[in-house]
Specification:
Elements (H helix, E strand, L loop, with lengths): L1 H20 L9 H21 L5 H15 L19
Helix pairs in contact: 1-2, 1-3, 2-3
Length: 90
């Protein structure tokens, strides 16, 4: 069951990494992207482990990381970013 711990660590790393790299995209509660990445990594890891019958743990870890990275973008709010620059008209 070491894989579950690894999946959880991947999810936490992705969630906190998103907050460190792009904090302006997450104006809501800080636990939302971390929790989203954590749940995504755990679910993807467990499902990939079931589908692959416990074989190829590195692939399971990779799929867990990919799912966490993709799903952590769901609570992001790029529409709330301040618009920079001006429009140039003809």
């Amino acid at each position: 069951m070491w894989e579950t711990t690894a999946f959880a660590l991947i999810g936490l790393a992705v969630g906190f990494g998103a907050l460190v790299v792009r904090p302006e995209l997450f104006p809501g509660p800080r636990a939302l992207p971390v929790g989203t990445a954590l749940v995504a990594a755990l679910l993807a890891g467990r499902i990939s482990g079931y589908v692959m019958d416990g074989q190829l743990p590195p692939v399971q870890l990779l799929l867990s990381a990919v799912a966490a990275v993709l799903l952590v973008s769901l609570p992001a709010r790029p529409d709330l970013l301040p618009r920079g620059g001006r429009h140039r008209h003809g």
